[in-house]
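Following up on my earlier thread - several people asked me to post the actual chain instead of describing it. Fair enough. Here it is, all 338 residues.
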Amino acid sequence: MKELRPLALTMGEPAGIGGEIALKAWLERDTKHVPPFYLIHDPKHLEALKDRLGWPVPLKPIATPEQAIDVFSSTLPVLVHPLLRQPIPGSPQEENAESVIGAINLAVDHVQNGSADAIVTNPIHKKVLIDAGFHHVGHTDYLAELAGNGTRAVMMLACPGLRVVPVCVHMSLRESIEALNIDKIIDTTRATVFALKSDFGIKKPHIALTGVNPHAGEDGAMGCEEIDIIRPAIEQMKKEGLSVRGPEPADTLFHERARSGYDAAICMYHDQALIPIKTLDFHGAVNITLGLPFVRTSPDHGTAFEISGTGVANADSLIGALKAAGAMARRRRGDNLH
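Reply from S.P.:
Thanks for posting it. Predicted structure:
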């Protein structure tokens, strides 16, 4: 076993549920086997939050990630990162956008210099950040930019029994179909196969690809994207030696027996991937970014402003993200996981 390093957990949108699910994750650290992490946040806000909720979470301000390991068992390590304004639950403030982005930057610095094992990001509120001058549609493409070297990041959603990867992500259905092409499908599938080997320990991944039309186009009767784009991509990948099949009708690919036949499903657009996984495991599914030189996971949900500050938010997805990040980081470091 190599030297243990903590996970870096970012604050996310401070007016959302990120703070309280981080507190809950620490409270459940023993019963749910949560790996050591530190939270990049403003201790003043967290003190007020835990007092409001009446939760017994002792906080330990730290200056470096290395300090987190020794204190995690008895206190929640908080790497001090002040907010310009103290948050109001459910009411995001543009003044705090710089701190939200700064927490992401710090986490990337820590994982790149080796003081953190992986990054776990709490949900952000994209509109507030964009209004403040953030020129990215979300975490994934921003992290790819910070990683440099022309990194192309790919989003995977995972839960026990299913992993899905959308080829086209945050765009309309019309835009997704227009953007779909052979190279994009192949690049997405290659990144998925590589990650399944390196991060999940699957030696020979089996991949199923969906069609885009009803009944996978039914030989062109209901659309030609399968014939013109998806099948040629699959044939090329088979020639490369990848274990791929499809295009499969999406409405028959996600029942229990079908899921046992592949390690990941490549879906053509956002909802085609997210609907089945959120139906199977709404609270526990995890967002994993493939293609980065470091490990990054996140909860598969948003800021939940409507319940922020009430203490009812479910922390299972964050706990799953922390556990997945820890396991993936250890595999990359060469630890033998069983």
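The radius of gyration is 20 Å. That should answer part of your original question.
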